[in-house]
Amino acid sequence: MSEKIYDVPADWAQHAYLDAHGYKAKYEASVRDPDAFWGEEGKRIDWFEPYTKVKNTSFDPGHVSIKWFEDGVTNVAWNCIDRHLDTRGDQVAIIWEGDNPSEQRLITYRELHDEVCRFANVLRNRNVEKGDRVTIYLPMIPEAAFAMLACARLGAVHSVVFGGFSPDSLASRIRDCDSKTIITADEGLRGGRKVPLKANVDAAIAKLADVEVDHVIVVRRTGGTVDMTPGRDVWYHEAADLVTTECPAAHVNAEDPLFILYTSGSTGQPKGVLHTTGGYLVYASMTHQYVFDYHEGDVYWCTADVGWVTGHSYILYGPLANGATTLMFEGVPNYPSNSRFWEVIDKYKVTIFYTAPTAIRALMQSGDAPVKKTSRASLRLLGSVGEPINPEAWEWYHRVVGDERCPIVDTWWQTETGGILITPLPGATRLKPGSATQPFFGVIPQVVDAEGRVLEGACEGNLVIADSWPGQMRTVYGDHERFVLTYFSTYPGKYFTGDGCRRDADGYYWITGRVDDVINVSGHRMGTAEVESALVAHPKVSEAAVVGYPHDIKGQGIYAYVTLMSGVEPTEELRKELVSWVRREIGPIASPDLIQFAPGLPKTRSGKIMRRILRKIAEDEFGNLGDTSTLADPGVVEDLISHRQNKK
Ligand code: ATP
Ligand code: MG
C-alpha cells in the first residue's frame, strides 16, 4: 500500500477546531473518563429534561445492553429545527438540486419548520403515534427530509427504504418492522429515467397477506399516473392543504427509538439496525462538526441517498443539528454529463464534499477533462465513505478534484455505528492515502487475532471496538438474540465489526476488507483490498474485485475480476501484463491465478462490491448465490457467469 504521507496544510492546522495536539488531548480525555467527556458533550443538544446518567453499557454476551443519557428527554426534530429559528430562521437549511439541472429549491429553517409540522400533522391525522413504525420509500426530494423529521417530531420510528429497491425487498422490510403507514411518491426520477415507486408499493402490499397497511401517503413528484386505492391511499398535497404548520414536538426519551435502517446486504441477509434518540444525535452532531470541520457559512454536500445511513447521519441529522446548510441531490454523477458533481459544486459554492469510492472510480474512468472544465474553487475539504478507497483513486480525488488543496477525510463506519468511528480530522491528522487513520473521540479500536487475543503495535487481524460510544445501534429490531450473536459472540466482551484491518507502526488503521473475504494462499492470509488496489493502480484498470477459489496446491487461488478504463481492449497480453504488475507491486504470493475481464461488477444499491457473489461464481456455485435482493443490477451476474474464466 501507498506509504506516501500528506502533512496537514499549515492554514488547516491553524484554523480547524483541533490541531494534532488538540486531537491527542481530547482523545485521551474521552477514553479516560467517558462519563465526564460525554456528560459535557451531551449538552450540544437541547434537552426538555436534562439527563443525570450518561453511560450505562455492557458488552457482556450474557446481557448486552447499551444506554446513553437514559433519563434525558428531548426531541430530534426540535434540535434540528426549532432551536435554530431565533438565530437562523432565514438561513437556508436544505439546498435541493433536482435530477434535471433546471430544478432546484432552497428551504430555510423557518420553511423547514412549517413543512415538517405540516407533514407531522398529516401523519397524526392518520393515527401515527409515538413508537409506530413508518416506512418511507421516496426519491431524493425534500419531502424525504420532511417525512423523516416529521416522524422524529412525533416520536414515530421511520424505516427508510432506498427508492431503488424492488417490491420484494420493500415488502420484506415492511413486514419485518410491521409498519402500517407507508410514504411514497408517484414516481422517482434518476438520470432522466422514471422509477415507478407507487406501483412498487402496490406490488409490495399485494405480497403482504400478513401485514395490514392502513395508509399510503403519496407525494406528487413527476405527475405520472398511478392507481389510488380509496380509503387507503391519499395524495400528500391534498392532505397537507387541510392541516396547520404548527405541531408540538413530542417529549421523547433518550433511549426511545428514532429509526430502523436495514444494512446494505453486502455480506448476507440485511439486518434491521435500531438507533435511538439522544446518543445518536449527540454523536452525529459531534462527528459532523469535527470530521468535516464544519464552520458557520460552509455549504456542505454529502452525495449519499437518504436510504443509507450516510444519508441519515450526514445529510440530515448531523448537519441540521449543527444548523448547517446541507445539499440534497436527486440525480446521479453522470447525468446529464460526467461533470455534474463539479457543476453542482460551482453552482452553490460547495465547500465540503463527501462521496463514495465507487463514484470516484466511475468518474476517474472518463479522465480529468470533465473535472477540469469546472472551477471547484469553493471546495476546501473532501470526504470518502463506504469502502476502502484505493490509493490510486485517493490520489486522483486529491489531485484532480481537490487541486491538491483539500484534505481528504476517509471515514470508516457502519450502519451499526450510527456515525463515523475511524477518520482523520483535517486540521490534526497527517494523511496516508488508503488509510482511515485514527479513532474518533471515545472510540477504542482493537485488532484481535482469530482466537481473540488483542494484538499490540503494528499488526493485522480483525477489527473490534472495546467499548460503547453514544451512536452505537441498540439492537436488531425484534431480534435481540441476533444482535448479540452477530456482534458480541465472536469475541466476547467486544463489538465485532466484521472487517479485517491492519495497524501500522504509526498507529494508523487500514481496513483490508471484510473478514469473510480474507484469502489464504499457501498459508498467507491476504485482505482483498490490497490486491485490488494494486490492480486499480494500473493505468488501464478502472475497478477490480478479488476473491479466493479452491486451488489444489495453494489451498486458495486468487481470482480477479477486472473492469478496464473506457476504450481499453481486453486482450490476452493485457491479462499477462496485469499478473506481472501485481507480482511487482505486492509480491509473487499475490499474483492472480485467474483474471476475468468484466464490464461490470455486482454491487449493492449503495455501490459496494458484493464479493460473496463473485466468490460463488469463482467456485462454480451458480445455483447458490444467496440473497441477491439488494443487487443494483442483477444482469451483471448473468454476464459474469457466462464469461467465467475456465479454471482447468
Ligand atoms: P451488510 O452488513 O448487510 O453486509 P454492509 O456492511 O455493506 O452490509 P454498511 O453498514 O452500509 O452495510 O457498510 C459498512 C461497511 O462498509 C463496513 O463494515 C466496511 O466494510 C465498509 N466501509 C465503510 N466505510 C469504509 C471506509 N472508509 N474504508 C473501508 N471500508 C469502509
Ligand atoms: Mg456490515
From TrEMBL:
Keyword Transit peptide belongs to the record: no
Reaction(s) this enzyme catalyzes, per UniProt: acetate + ATP + CoA = acetyl-CoA + AMP + diphosphate
Listed cofactors: Mg(2+)
Domain (AMP-binding enzyme C-terminal): residue spans on this chain: 530-608
Occurrences of domain Acetyl-coenzyme A synthetase N-terminal (ranges): 23-80
Keyword hit for Metal-binding: yes
Pfam family, one: AMP-binding
Domain AMP-dependent synthetase/ligase: 82-467
N6-acetyllysine PTM positions: 608
Entry EC no(s): 6.2.1.1
Binding positions (Mg(2+)): 536, 538, 541
Post-translational modification: Acetylated. Deacetylation by the SIR2-homolog deacetylase activates the enzyme.
Positions contributing to CoA binding: 190-193, 310, 334, 522, 583
Positions in coiled-coil regions: none
Residues where ATP binds: 386-388, 410-415, 499, 514, 525
Keywords, sorted A to Z: Acetylation, ATP-binding, Ligase, Magnesium, Metal-binding, Nucleotide-binding
Molecular functions per Gene Ontology: acetate-CoA ligase activity
Purpose of the protein: Catalyzes the conversion of acetate into acetyl-CoA (AcCoA), an essential intermediate at the junction of anabolic and catabolic pathways. AcsA undergoes a two-step reaction. In the first half reaction, AcsA combines acetate with ATP to form acetyl-adenylate (AcAMP) intermediate. In the second half reaction, it can then transfer the acetyl group from AcAMP to the sulfhydryl group of CoA, forming the product AcCoA.
Similarity annotation: Belongs to the ATP-dependent AMP-binding enzyme family.
Protein name: Acetyl-coenzyme A synthetase
Species, as recorded: Ancylobacter amanitiformis
